[in-house]
Amino acid sequence: MLYLAPLAAQALCLLVDEFVFHHRRGLGKWERRGHPIDTLSVLACFCVPAFFAPSPSALFWFAVLSVFSSLLVTKDEWVHAAECEPLEHWLHAVLFIVHPVVFIAVGWVWWNGFQEFGRAVILGQVGVLSVFTFYQVLFWRAWE
Q: How far, in Å, are 2, 111, 116 from residue 99 at the CA level?
């Protein structure tokens, strides 16, 4: 159950980032489009252990997607440098640390034979991430 700690930390930080900082300052076009893409990259990672049995090829794709997502989420920092207050910068730093730790925890649970609870958590994350992506696209009107 220790693997839940990074997922909980990431969820808490993301909720504060989204519903405190983003709502307070608003998002420009770059972030309105980029943040749903970030969430989709995380969703893609979670889909591997959610829908594929552990195998060397599935692990390879999970690792590739995890590294890609961990790098992708840093793409907005040049925008954040101009628009964010120091506390939001700090929160982003925490998120950048937790992001790959979440993938390591999920990968470990998946590779070591899904307990039913672990599988439920991963499938639940797929659902939550899907809803959050739709929220981001619709609330921030990413197409504008």
A: 16, 18, 23
46: which 2 tokens? Answer: 């979670």
pTM above 0.90?
yes
Distance (Å, whole) CA 39 – CA 22: 15
Query: Of 58, 125, 120, 71, whose CA–CA distance to 99 is shortest?
Result: 71
Rounded to a whole number of angstroms, the distance between the first and last alpha carbons of the chain is 42
Taking the C-alpha atoms of residue 13 and residue 20, their distance in angstroms, rounded to an integer, is 10
13 by Cβ neighbours in 10 Å (0-12 / 13-18 / 19+) ranks as: middle
**Half-sphere exposure for 76 (CA within 13 Å, toward CB):** 24
pLDDT tens column, 85-107: 999 999 999 999 999 999 999 99
In 3D, which of 101, 93, 89 has the Cα closest to residue 6?
Answer: 101
What is the number of residues in the chain? 144
Interval 32-61: pLDDT, tens: 999 999 999 999 999 999 999 999 999 999
